[in-house]
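Need Nitroreductase's 3D structure for a figure. Predict it.
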Amino acid sequence: MSMDTEELQNLIASRRTCYLFNPKETMPLLDDAVYRCLNAAIWAPNHKLTQPWRFWVLGAQSQSELAEVYAQLRADKRAQPQSEAHQSIYQAAIEKFHKFPRIVLVGQVLDEDEVRRKEDYAACACAIQNLQLIAWQQGIGVQWSTGPILQSDVTYRMLGESRDNVELIGALYMGYLKGDCNTQNAKRKPVEEVSRWLP
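Structure prediction for Nitroreductase:
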């Protein structure tokens, strides 16, 4: 089914970053829905057709492994090691990470040329936007996180990747929307305020 211009504009304008998802036990986000999102992502514009994006879709085991990295980093940042507060924060973070219905990590293949790297990062951001839009159209929310797990050596080792070859640029937390997040972050500056029409 094709969309007319107004429908497409409404889809783009309605998309939001969402943090609340329906439980994966009752509304699981299945592989075919994630695949559909990834298939939209790879059609993003990319200069010289470098196709610099890489995706890792976590399964139950890898999500559990990464949960420990996430929780450790979160607890270390907020409390003294081996304190009660540290343990409490660690446990809460483990539970939070396990609740995400699906997690997709996004990486950028690193070109030796600095200009090409900038172009490739822009292409990866476009790919993530494509993914978010097709997800939103299916009632799937996405939170694009750039948190500390993306800088962790443990994460790179888990993925079998080298920092010299790939830079992790996003953790996409995904799930079917819970409640209405249409109203959050709904404001944008008007086009007239951010554009100039030159003669």
